[in-house]
User: Fold ATP-binding protein from Nocardia panacis.
Amino acid sequence: MPLGRAYSVAVTGVDGQLIEIEADVGQGLPSVHLVGLPDTALQESRDRVRAAVTNSGEKWPDGRVILALSPATLPKVGSVYDLALAVAVLDAAGLVPAERLARTVLLGELALDGRVRRVRGILPAVIAARDAGCATAVVPCSVLAEAGLVDGITVLGADTLRTVIAWLRGEGALVEPDGQLPEVVPSGGDLSEVAGQEEARWALEIAAAGGHHLLLTGPPGIGKTMLAQRLPGLLPPLTESESLEVTAIHSMAGVLSGDQPLITAPPFVAPHHSTSAAAMIGGGSGSARPGAVSRAHRGVLFLDECAEISTHILEALRTPLEEGEVRIARRDGVARYPARFQLVMAANPCPCAPARDVDCICAPLARRRYLGKLSGPLMDRIDIWVRMHGQSSAISAESAESSAVVRARVAVARAAAVARWHEYGWTTNAEVPGHILRQRFRLPHATIAPIETALRLGRMSARGADRAIRVAWTIADLRGADLPTCQDVLSAMNFRQRGVQ
Assistant:
């Protein structure tokens, strides 16, 4: 009984698993049966694969074709298996040699005329294939640059099923990646374009240096969005491992640009205030896709008009903020996406949002209710609160520091934090657990006396105290000091008491 075999990859979250595809051609009425928990898109691949094979000049077997995807208990989602299904059938029919198929994964959707189309999640799929010991990965040419980012595996690109068949027969070659990446063009504007707002600029620098979360409140048009958009320009570029991690998430989301296959700069994600919970946290029908919090991994998540966002969506941010991960439960398992981002929120002080507080026409209850969506547990996870005010006079932007100058200070402060926490594996002050700050790196009693007083009087929670200490460490790093002083602690506490007034 003829039996063919090929390999593909199933991706759940950003983790992939090797899938063995077996094709059996037996006696019986001509038909195609697909087993192994396929979803609707994969069930429809039976017709796509048959049309692609015949339109590529090959003969579809006469008889009963059974296609099995193993492990059978793992749900299979999407059209990434099309190319492997077609090759497995040709192998079972004896039309292609099996030598190259033993350590090769085939990824791609097939058009009816045999063209190989791009699919989501190519980068994590190729990484999973490499980790499973595969030597070669064949992918669509349109995502060849993305797949070529993975070291330790030979990546080849194919435009059509016909070229893949010729390569398996040793009659032709597939496209190899050129290894060249486009030059990264900085975006987001320069900090020198923001006039005035010295306190908010200082808060932004602290947030960049320590990886802290930030809340900006103030009347419309005062510069909250401009400041938030310039935060990524103050952050250091991503490391090689971080770039692959972030790129894999964007590949799964289907938003990776073909012109820029590798993300090397911290991403900036700004969802609209009317966004849904699935778009913010992740989910959707079928396979769970990453949401805005995961696409902002290693970068900035900016929530403009955060007081207009639904309360249940804001509360859903609490777990990612604390754990740096999103777990999306489905009937067939749990998809995990990393979500370690810097949160920047901006809000008007009240619904009418006048340029001056004295012009406000809102009732006191309406003002309290407007920012009341920002619950105490959520606000407790925000490190820095800043209330921005209008400028009393026009200030020339020429006197403001540029992003390059501030970025240099941020780099020095981050280097100090890395040197201090290197033994524990942390890179920023915001990542340090509270018990480490209180035990192994406990500050002198005179330094943290203001925090202890606030705790005793009930003005600050234990979590808030830990976050104030983290900010104090960052302020000390920006000053070039070895330890925070009492003044640094007071400055950090001041940033936690001025945002929502």
